[in-house]
Design goal:
seven-stranded mixed beta sheet, Leucine-rich repeat, LRR (right-handed beta-alpha superhelix), mainly alpha, 465 residues, transmembrane helix, single chain
């Protein structure tokens, strides 16, 4: 067996450490509970189980230490943090064996026979166990994992509120949150897989063991983009299998930042031409619904009555979110969080949608994605006469249920991503004169049908292909 094979086998075993490490925690905590019950209750018979719990805790602790050492050979961990975790684990394990030997009577020490330090030993052991776990959590999730949301901790200054979408600096407002959600757990100050840290822009610039992860102006030639585009079962794919992958929108945003934003920390959306899908993602993420308007669109806005705040309040009480797009315009976005409507409450929501009727001429943008939508709800949506952008992704809509939407004469953008629509939807879309773009990937609409449709239509069909 070669050294490489030995190394792979060692790492294979080491990856069982996160599973095994919970066993000593459970056994030793259980031993403490039994000891407390023996000391402070009448359940003296439980004391007989303490030596067994200590023995299992000590043995599983020893196995966890060995597997942890094997896992550490993969590298990428902060050495000081790793040493702290390792040695606290060893001391805790040795103390567990010592406590078991005393409790079982195998080890007889005169002074301990008189003092009976079982409870004190177990208390110290649990404290050491907590410290060991703290170091382990820091190694896995970052140094500030435990205290990040603590009330006494000095909070990081929030980013300034944006007045316009085009003022958004791409890295801090859009790119960094993606890295924090999908990458930083494995690439931080304490845990640098592949020698790469991604918790700050400065760390990104340093790169990893293989050098820079992106080439400004060349997204396809950047290692970061190559890794996130690999098949999900590939050894080098990032995030690795088992972690939450980047969405198509997040990948598109990163490509845009590298290609057009030159992977710069200070580039704003207003300084470069932004693809529509990236603009829509940025608008949704940052709370700007009408992306085109926020980005300097010259479209003439419809005239609307001032908002009736009593109506708005009655709508928001039911779970809708209503936001005026431009102060004083009376034009609004209406959104609904994912998962609000399901088969059990859909009748109630059909009534709730009727509450939107007083705003039907004022709704310019709407997002009801991620919900079950009935035919009756689609009829209500079709009454929004000035609707420009409509998001119905991840919903239960079908070719038949969306037919009422063809009456929306002002609709410019429609998102039916990951729904049950088929090729039969395309003729209806062709009848919608003002419709400019439809997002249709991960549906049953075929590539051939899209190509045939596009020969006779100027409508931009975004299929993800």
């Amino acid at each position: 067996m070669s050294m490489q094979e030995v190394s792979d086998f060692v790492l294979f075993l080491g990856r069982f450490h996160p599973l095994v490490v919970h066993l000593p925690i459970g056994f030793l905590m259980f031993a403490l509970v039994l000891e407390l019950a023996d000391n402070y209750t009448k359940m003296k018979h439980l004391n007989a189980a303490v030596p067994l719990a200590l023995l299992f805790g000590a043995i599983s602790g020893a196995v966890a230490c060995i597997l942890g050492y094997m896992l550490s050979q993969s590298g990428g961990y902060d050495e000081e943090m790793l040493n702290g975790h390792f040695w606290f684990g060893i001391v805790t394990t040795l103390l567990a064996f010592f406590a078991w030997a005393l409790k079982s009577g195998i080890l007889k020490i005169a002074i301990f026979q008189k003092v009976k330090p079982n409870l004190a030993l177990l208390t110290v052991m649990v404290i050491l166990l907590s410290v060991t776990g703290h170091y382990g959590g820091n190694l896995t999730h970052g140094e500030d994992y435990l205290v990040k949301y603590a009330p006494f901790r000095e909070k990081e200054e929030p980013l300034p509120q944006l007045a316009k979408l085009e003022d958004a600096t791409v890295y801090p407002y859009l790119v960094k949150p993606i890295f924090e959600a999908k990458c930083v757990s494995c690439h931080n100050e304490s845990k640098k897989k592949g020698g790469l840290a991604m918790h700050s822009f400065e760390a990104l610039m340093v790169g990893g063991d293989d050098g820079s992860i992106f080439t400004p102006g060349d997204a396809e030639g950047s290692e970061l983009i190559r890794r996130i585009n690999l098949p999900e079962n590939h050894d080098d794919v990032m995030p690795p299998e088992g972690k939450t992958p980047l969405t198509d929108q997040e990948s598109a945003l990163l490509k845009f930042w590298i290609e057009h934003g030159q992977a710069n920390e200070l580039t704003t959306l207003g300084e470069t031409e932004v693809p529509e899908d990236v603009l829509a993602y940025a608008a949704s993420t940052l709370g700007f619904a009408a992306a085109g308007l926020a980005h300097g669109s010259t479209d003439v806005l419809p005239t609307a009555n001032p908002l009736n705040m009593e109506v708005v309040h009655s709508i928001t009480e039911q779970g809708f979110k209503v936001k005026e797009l431009i102060d004083g315009s009376g034009l609004v976005e209406v959104t609904l969080e994912d998962g609000q409507i399901n088969a059990e409450n859909i009748n109630k929501w059909e009534e709730n949608f009727k509450l939107l009727a007083p705003l039907k001429d004022q709704i310019l943008w709407a997002d009801f994605g991620g919900n079950e939508l009935s035919d009756a709800i689609l009829v209500q949506i079709a009454s929004f006469t000035n609707l420009r952008k409509l998001v119905l992704d991840n919903t239960t809509i079908t070719d038949t249920s969306v037919q009422p939407l063809k009456t929306l004469k002002n609709l410019e953008s429609l998102n039916v991503y990951k729904t049950n629509v088929t090729n039969n939807l395309l003729p209806m879309l062709g009848e919608m004169a003002n419709l400019k773009k439809v997002y249709i990937w991960q549906t049953q609409v075929s590539t051939d049908a899209i190509e045939q449709f596009s020969k006779n239509s100027n409508l931009e069909v975004v299929s993800g292909v």
